[in-house]
């Protein structure tokens, strides 16, 4: 359901760009130069801006839990740094969401916005990531992010628990919920800063 494609860099097979790929597999499709592809559907004013970052950080990596917190701080919950700024301060997006995939090693940010505001939205994403990298955010944000993650692991349903242990099985890791919670509590601001510094912008997708 992509009406047209504007390509920058290497040629990519249009047939591979389906919904599943955009949501989960695009890093495996789009290889080569940064900003390989920008996709646009040619009608309406509302759009989704999707920005993908190579994280080079996986479940077995040193900065795995710091990267989980980077994601939560950025837009992993409704009052996260980017989500709150775009919604309450700049009124640029009513729906902001980020996802860190520890198996494939990428972080994705998705924002619903107006097609005329896409450049401003992209700028705010970079500013939010810079805040996290420099550690210039309110420490209450970090306390809230840790609290949300701990509640997720403590009170998660059957599917959350299955996901937790399945990912460990895939990565050859054996860790119980209590051990994970302790690691979350012990993550430092410096580790979060280092994890944020690993992110490299790779792809921008704009879909209406």
Structure write-up:
By secondary structure, the protein is an alpha+beta fold. It has eight helices and six strands; from the N terminus they run βαββααββαααααβ. The protein has helices at 19-29, 64-75, 81-89, 118-134, 139-155, 158-171, 177-186, 189-196, and strands spanning 4-7, 37-40, 46-54, 95-101, 106-114, 200-207. The strands form two sheets. A four-stranded antiparallel sheet has the order 4-5-3-6, covered by helices on one side. The chain has a two-stranded antiparallel ribbon with strand order 1-2. Helix 2 (64-75) packs across helix 8 (189-196). The longest helix has 17 residues, at 118-134. Mean pLDDT is 83; it is low at 1-43.
* Count of individual helical segments: 8
What summary fits the major beta sheet?
A: 4 strands, antiparallel
The fraction of residues assigned to DSSP E strands is 15-25%
Rg, Cα atoms, Å? 17 Å
End-to-end span in angstroms?
10 Å
* Strand count: 6
| Fraction of residues in H or I helices | 40-55%
List the helices and strands and how they pair.
Layout lengths: L3 E4 L11 H11 L7 E4 L5 E9 L9 H12 L5 H9 L5 E7 L4 E9 L3 H17 L4 H17 L2 H14 L5 H10 L2 H8 L3 E8 L1
Antiparallel strand pairs: 1-2, 3-5, 3-6, 4-5
Helix pairs in contact: 2-8, 3-4, 4-8, 5-7
């Amino acid at each position: 359901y992509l009406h047209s494609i504007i390509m920058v860099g290497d040629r990519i097979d249009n047939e591979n760009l389906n919904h599943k790929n955009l949501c989960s597999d695009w890093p495996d499709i789009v290889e080569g130069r940064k900003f390989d592809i920008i996709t646009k559907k040619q009608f309406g004013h509302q759009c989704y801006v999707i920005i993908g970052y190579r994280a080079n950080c996986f479940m077995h990596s040193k900065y795995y839990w710091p990267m989980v917190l980077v994601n939560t701080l950025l837009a992993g919950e409704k009052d996260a740094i980017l989500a709150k700024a775009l919604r309450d301060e700049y009124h640029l997006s009513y729906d902001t969401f980020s996802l860190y995939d520890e198996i494939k090693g990428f972080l994705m940010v998705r924002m619903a916005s107006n097609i005329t505001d896409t450049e401003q939205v992209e700028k705010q994403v970079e500013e939010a990531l810079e805040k996290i990298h420099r550690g210039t955010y309110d420490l209450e944000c970090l306390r809230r992010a840790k609290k949300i993650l701990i509640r997720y692991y403590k009170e998660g349903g059957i599917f959350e628990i299955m996901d937790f242990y399945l990912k460990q099985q895939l990565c050859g890791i054996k860790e119980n919920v209590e051990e994970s919670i302790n690691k979350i509590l012990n993550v430092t601001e410096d580790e979060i800063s280092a994890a944020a510094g690993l992110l490299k912008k790779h792809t921008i997708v704009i879909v209406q």
